[in-house]
Amino acid sequence: MTDPAFPAAPFRLAERIVLQATPLAVIRHDGIRLADLRDAFDRGYTAIGELFQTGELVPTGPALAIYYGDPMDEFDLELGFPVADAPAAPITRGDLVVRASQLPAGPAVAATHVGPYDGLGAAWGELVSAAEGEPNGISIESYVGDPGSAAPDELRTDLIMPVRG
């Protein structure tokens, strides 16, 4: 895949990239908190995975989560996958709605965290400290490592922070 958001090799700390408006299939949660993430992730990725199994959607990259706002407070969340074609219309699965979205195109800084998910907070802190450019309130996590098959200390999560200018 040639999309700069989804490289084969890990990112260096505060590596500068330019995001493309990559099509996504996502489930959006407005006004969510960190305590709600496990349920949102489990249910959401399962619903989208069912659409992959039926062929309604075709994934082109790893699972991701896009945080809008301050993740330490109430924030909005899109979780999903890059896809070959975003859904033309919303797709309902139970009480969840899968809809089209896209990565926010433009400049960003990125880093890779390898290890358990409980280390993501510290990894984000390192990226923010090392980054040049003003964050625009969006944070993206790309879950390259599969938690179902990889040991926790081998999980790879790419962190992407879009910046102004």
UniProtKB/TrEMBL annotation:
**Domain AraC effector-binding spans what residues?**
12-164
InterPro entries assigned to the protein according to its UniProt record, in alphabetical order = AraC_E-bd, GyrI-like, Reg_factor_effector_dom_sf
Spell out the protein name for this chain. AraC effector-binding domain-containing protein
Organism for this UniProt entry: uncultured Microbacterium sp
